[in-house]
Amino acid sequence: MNLADAVHLIRPAVRDGGMWADLGAGRGLFSRALAEILGPTGRVVAVDRDRWALGVLAMRARLQIGRAPIDVVTGDFRGLGGVASLEGRGFDGALFANALHFVAEAGTVLRRWTERLREGADLIVVEYDVETANPWVPHPISLERLHTMAAEAGLPTPEELGRRPSAYHGEIYCAVLPGRPIRRTTGQGGGAAGG
């Protein structure tokens, strides 16, 4: 998946401006997509445990002119204590892109992060739509499982925003647990994607 694919996939759930968290950001493909959509009045906080990956992201973020700044935070998004520097911040949205499949208790993590969002904020999930675990996706979160997890955690019903073919595992879907009405765009189908 490239930057244009990532932007197209999440754009319907992201408004200009505001502060968003990219949780499990890695090298930041989706952090950079958020920064492009949010524009210079926005801000992205990219959280990951991998300092090397965040270093790559920080280097790439410096090259993005006219886009939202990206702050990198080393920490574990699974526990609130892992990102203590984010306490008290109210986010306008949060994104988990190919990160929740590493978490056994993903429903609990989703609920914890929705509590950190401002009222009306959206939470975006990008995941492989697979049921069977493998070494790279140890806790798969198919769209059906995301619906079940959201219901069990008392969260809004996820809405699918789009899909992309994946070079690794069938398809990647993008869904939002909406805090407000989602604007729809046309042309949600898509070209080949790595991810």
Kindly describe this structure:
By secondary structure, the chain is of the alpha/beta class. The chain has a 7-stranded mixed β-sheet with strand order 3-2-1-4-5-7-6. Helix 1 (3-10) packs across helix 2 and helix 4 packs across helix 5 (143-152). The protein starts with a helix and ends in an 18-residue tail after the last strand. It is globular and about 40 Å long. Strand 6 and strand 7 (171-177) form a beta hairpin. The chain has helices spanning 3-10, 29-38, 51-62, 106-114, 143-152; strands at residues 18-23, 42-48, 70-74, 91-97, 117-128, 159-165, 171-177. The chain has one domain (3-177): Rossmann fold (3-Layer(aba) Sandwich).
Tell me the domain tally.
Answer: 1
Give the SSE string: HEHEHEEHEHEE
The strand order across the widest sheet is 3-2-1-4-5-7-6
Task: Specify the CATH architecture.
Answer: 3-Layer(aba) Sandwich
Helix/strand/pairing category? alpha/beta
What is the quaternary state of this protein? single chain
Radius of gyration: 15 Å
CATH domain fold name: Rossmann fold
List keywords for this structure.
alpha/beta, seven-stranded mixed beta sheet, Rossmann fold, 195 residues, 7 strands
Could you provide a short overview of the structure?
This protein has 195 residues and is an alpha/beta fold. It contains five helices and seven strands, in the order H-E-H-E-H-E-E-H-E-H-E-E.
How are the SSEs placed, and which strands pair?
Layout: H1 3-10, E1 18-23, H2 29-38, E2 42-48, H3 51-62, E3 70-74, E4 91-97, H4 106-114, E5 117-128, H5 143-152, E6 159-165, E7 171-177
Parallel strand pairs: 1-2, 1-4, 2-3, 4-5
Antiparallel strand pairs: 5-7, 6-7
